[in-house]
Amino acid sequence: MAVTSKSGWVVINAEECKGCGLCILACPAGCLSFSSEFNHQGYHSFHYSGEGCRADGLCFYACPEPGAITLYRSDADARPAA
Predict the structure, then answer these.
(1) What is the pTM of this model?
(2) What is residue 25's three-state secondary structure?
(3) Domain CATH code at residue 42
(4) What are phi and psi of 17, to 5 degrees?
(5) Spatial distance between the Cα atoms of 77 and 82, rounded to a whole number of angstroms
């Protein structure tokens, strides 16, 4: 039986982020960090490194802001070009 490796990627709506850092703490892959830029509310949002996402959804469920994180789960080859 062949085992396919699932991966994913995170899309961030920086304007919805309040900079609480819960997503960063929840990410076991360590692919999220604080951004150096401020959003329109004056918060440092978070930044996705672009690789390493395990698509486990922990960042999504830890985030208190609806719409700040969108998580996509797919095969690595299915990720759209940025």
Answers:
(1) 0.78
(2) helix
(3) 3.30.70.20
(4) -75, 135
(5) 13
